[in-house]
UniProtKB/TrEMBL annotation:
Region (Disordered): 1-42, 194-215
Lineage top rank: taxon: Eukaryota
Keyword Ribonucleoprotein: yes
Protein name, as recorded: rRNA biogenesis protein RRP36
Organism encoding this protein: Stentor coeruleus
Summary of the function given for this chain in its UniProt record: Component of the 90S pre-ribosome involved in the maturation of rRNAs. Required for early cleavages of the pre-RNAs in the 40S ribosomal subunit maturation pathway.
A Pfam family assignment: RRP36
Subcellular location: Nucleus, Nucleolus
Length: 215
C-alpha cells in the first residue's frame, strides 16, 4: 500500500476540520422577487454556562451547607416579644406624631389660599388617621393585657380559662373610647362626623349600584 505523504494527509485533515463560511449575501430568484438569505448559521464556539445548585460548591463539586442570613430580633436568644415593654420604650413616638400633626395644621392655616393647600390637607388627614389607628391599637393591647392578668389570677384559683375573641376586644375598646370622648366633651362631634361619613358612603354606594332595568 502506497504511503500518503505526511503533508498531504495534514492538509486533508485541516480541510475536513475547517468550518465553511456561510454565505450571508442576499440572493434573488429574479429582480422582482424578495431578497433571500440562508438560515444556516455556524455553531457558536462559546461553551454554555453550567449552573450549579445553590448548595453546591462550583469548584469542588461537593455539597456545602447553604448560608442563610439571620435577623437577631427573631432569634431565641433575643427573648420573647413583650408588647407592653415595646410600647413603653417607644412612647416618645406618640409625642413626635402629635408635634408633626400640629405643625401640619399650622401649615394648613398659612397656605389656606395657595396651590399647596389640597396636597397638605391630604397629608394632614392621612397623619391624623394614622394617629387614631395607633391610639385604637394601643387601647386594645392594654385591654388584652389587663384581661390576661386578671384571667391568670382566676385560673390559679381554679377557674376554667376563658379566651377573648377579637370582636369582643374591639367592642370593649370602642366602649372605653366613647366614655373617654364623653369625659372630654367630644362625644357629640364624633357621632355627628360618623353619621356624616356613613351618609356619604351610602350615597356613593347607591350611585355605584346598577339601576333597575325597565321591562
Amino acid at each position: 500500500m502506497e504511503e500518503v505523504p505526511f503533508k498531504k494527509q495534514l492538509a486533508k485533515d485541516r480541510k475536513k476540520s475547517e468550518v465553511k463560511a456561510v454565505d450571508t449575501t442576499f440572493k434573488r430568484a429574479s429582480k422582482h422577487a424578495p431578497k433571500e438569505m440562508s438560515s444556516k448559521m455556524p455553531a457558536s464556539k462559546i461553551k454554555p454556562i453550567k449552573f450549579y445548585r445553590s448548595d453546591e460548591d462550583p469548584e469542588s463539586g461537593k455539597f456545602v451547607k447553604k448560608f442563610k442570613p439571620k435577623d437577631p430580633r427573631f432569634e431565641n436568644y433575643a427573648g420573647n416579644f413583650n408588647q407592653g415593654l415595646f410600647e413603653a420604650s417607644y412612647s416618645f413616638m406618640d409625642d413626635y406624631r402629635s408635634n408633626e400633626l400640629s405643625e401640619l395644621e399650622k401649615s394648613l392655616h398659612d397656605t389656606a389660599y395657595s396651590d399647596q393647600y389640597d396636597s397638605l390637607k391630604k397629608v394632614y388627614m392621612k397623619k391624623k388617621q394614622e394617629i387614631q389607628r395607633f391610639e385604637d391599637q394601643n387601647r386594645e393591647n392594654k385591654l388584652k393585657r389587663k384581661f390576661k392578668k386578671e384571667e391568670k389570677e382566676k385560673v390559679q384559683k381554679g377557674k376554667k380559662p376563658f379566651f377573648l375573641k377579637k370582636g369582643l376586644i374591639k367592642m370593649m375598646a370602642m366602649k372605653e373610647k366613647m366614655e373617654d370622648l364623653k369625659v372630654q366633651g367630644k362625644y357629640e362631634d364624633y357621632i355627628r362626623k360618623k353619621r356624616k361619613r356613613e351618609k356619604t358612603m351610602q350615597r356613593s354606594e347607591a350611585f355605584a349600584l346598577p339601576s333597575e332595568r325597565r321591562t
